[in-house]
Write a structure and sequence with these properties.
Distance between the termini: 40 Å
Number of strands: 20
Helix content: 25-40%
Shape: globular
Structural class: alpha+beta
Length: 520
């Protein structure tokens, strides 16, 4: 059992999710967005943030999407439990304690005296509605596919501050899964909301589409008051523009930068736990032949990419999760760069009748991470070098999600999609359930045998769990080849000298405003 009787006084560097369109007219018109003297960061009034893109929604059940979560998570809404991204420990938030009360049942005691920003009381009924809406409904919530898959939960209110959650099968990491569900005020279970009402330290003041989102401090917040009275989010697609806004005192924090965007000494590197890979539609020719998928792995010059595009701030990846996550396999090395071997595999497949000249479209979401456009062009050329018909296609976020998340676009032939996956949850199940199982929300193919391997690993605990998932990643590499892993990334943000903030592996998906304060 975990419990905490003390009121959470808001909060150390806790939890993160797994796992970001429009450029606005202000920059183009040359208008300044600098704070007035009354609202300067030193006065603790307004914090100005610039993001790579405008969120498509602020719906809490979609906050596993980085572009949504970086605004919503632990700012507007909050979960029952949160995870420290450094230690991996779970901490109380809207729940003060939890324990397993059966093989498939967990009981949660909720925090007393909490209200939503509209004055509605937070209680077990509100928590149950939020969980049921996110996991058991028909909204196709991102958190459902990424964290829970097809498994429904049975949610029962015992009394106003006690909640029971049951799973179809024993789930040793259910509290960790629930840390990804942001609790919003009771709302329509059959429609997503654009502007949620939560229990967090900030409430939505306004969303001027295409321009900015403004949050106002929640003066009735149950925890400690954050330093800034207001937070203003803008978005610019070019990293150099975002960096210049900080160096030019038009913003206080710029997200999603690369090392050469010009932030200078205001730029900060931080580990973001993201893995970049190509995800294959392995049941569509020519990617339905494992030799073609293997050839692509040999064809990608991962060291060249990480050194040239990312100035050595990233490193070649060998699997979908980073070190430190339960299940990471220390024995796996990145695929070697071997053009001759890649050409031989393609030729062998062609000789057996595989239509290797059919088009493979390399799809990428514009702005998802720095230099994704350039990376996609490099990948196209490297696939062409081994005799494959590759074509790069960079699309905006709303279109990209149709390739990334079920139901997929399936009428365009073979797809190799550039994905960036971050497992800040600390357990391999949060990666494999959505990306590797046959019916995973972001998996384009799998095998029944591999599904069985993953299911058995997910049922384990302790050292057996670590070994089982490590073996599963070796199995995927040798027998399935769902991905071509490219790089483990490093995050970069720019921070004004007048702002105190220490980024961590959660920052790219959840920048908690309560952790930011004026510098002394």
């Amino acid at each position: 059992m975990f419990s905490s009787d003390a009121r959470n006084t808001r909060r150390g560097p806790f939890r993160a999710p797994i796992v970001i369109a429009a450029a606005a007219a202000l920059a183009l018109s040359g208008c300044s967005v600098a704070n007035s003297a009354a609202d300067s960061p030193a006065g603790g009034q307004a914090l100005r943030l610039v993001l790579p893109m405008e969120p498509t929604t602020l719906e809490p059940c979609d906050s596993s999407l980085a572009s949504t979560g970086v605004v919503v998570r632990s700012n507007i809404t909050e979960p029952l439990i949160e995870r420290d991204p450094t230690s991996g420990e779970l901490h109380p938030l809207l729940a003060t304690s939890w324990e397993a009360t059966g093989d498939t049942e967990w009981t949660f005691t909720l925090r007393e005296g909490v209200s939503f920003q509209d004055g509605t009381p937070f209680n077990a009924e509100a928590a149950a509605l939020a969980i049921d809406r996110a996991v058991n409904g028909d909204l196709s919530c991102d958190v459902e596919g990424q964290i829970f898959g097809d498994a429904d939960l049975v949610v029962e209110t015992v009394d106003s501050l006690t909640l029971k959650v049951s799973t179809p099968d024993p789930d040793p990491v259910l509290p960790l899964r629930l840390s990804f569900i942001e609790i919003g005020a009771p709302t329509d279970a059959e429609a997503k909301v654009r502007e949620p009402i939560g229990t967090g330290p900030y409430a939505i003041d306004s969303w001027d589409a295409g321009l900015k989102i403004t949050l106002q401090r929640n003066e009735d917040y149950w925890g400690s008051a954050p330093a800034y009275q207001r937070a203003e989010y803008q978005w610019r697609s070019e990293g150099t523009v975002r960096a210049a806004m900080v160096t030019g005192n038009e913003a206080d924090i710029a997200m999603g930068l690369s090392t050469d965007d010009g932030a200078g000494e205001l730029g900060i590197d931080y580990p973001n736990n993201e893995t970049v890979a190509l995800r294959f539609s392995g049941d569509i020719a020519p990617l339905d032949d494992i030799r073609v998928r293997q050839a692509i792995n040999f064809a990608i010059d991962k060291t060249g990419i990480t050194q040239s595009l990312y100035a050595g701030k990233s490193e070649p990846a060998s699997q979908i999760i980073p070190p430190g996550v339960v299940g990471y396999n220390d024995d796996l090395e990145p695929w070697e760069f071997n053009l001759q071997k890649a050409k031989e595999l393609v030729a062998e497949a062609k000789a057996d009748g595989v239509p290797v000249d059919q088009k493979i479209t390399i799809v990428a979401r514009s702005g998802q991470f720095p230099k994704i456009d350039q990376l996609t062009e490099v990948l196209q050329e490297q696939l062409k070098q081994i005799g494959l018909n590759a074509e790069a296609k960079v699309v905006e976020t709303s279109t990209g999600l149709q390739y990334q998340v079920r139901p997929f676009i399936l009428n365009e032939g073979a797809i190799a999609m550039v994905v960036q996956h971050g497992n800040q949850a600390g357990d391999a199940s949060f990666s494999v359930d959505s990306y590797m199982t046959t019916d995973g929300q972001m998996s384009m193919f799998g095998t029944e045998a591999f599904d069985d391997v993953l299911a058995k690993a997910s049922a384990q605990t302790g050292e057996e769990r670590q070994r089982a998932f490590a073996d599963a990643f070796a199995y995927e590499r040798n027998e399935v080849v769902q991905f071509a892993y490219i790089a483990r990334m490093t995050g970069v943000l720019a921070k004004a000298a007048g702002v105190d903030y220490e980024p961590d592996s959660a920052t790219g998906d959840e920048l908690r405003l309560a952790a930011v304060s004026p510098a002394n």
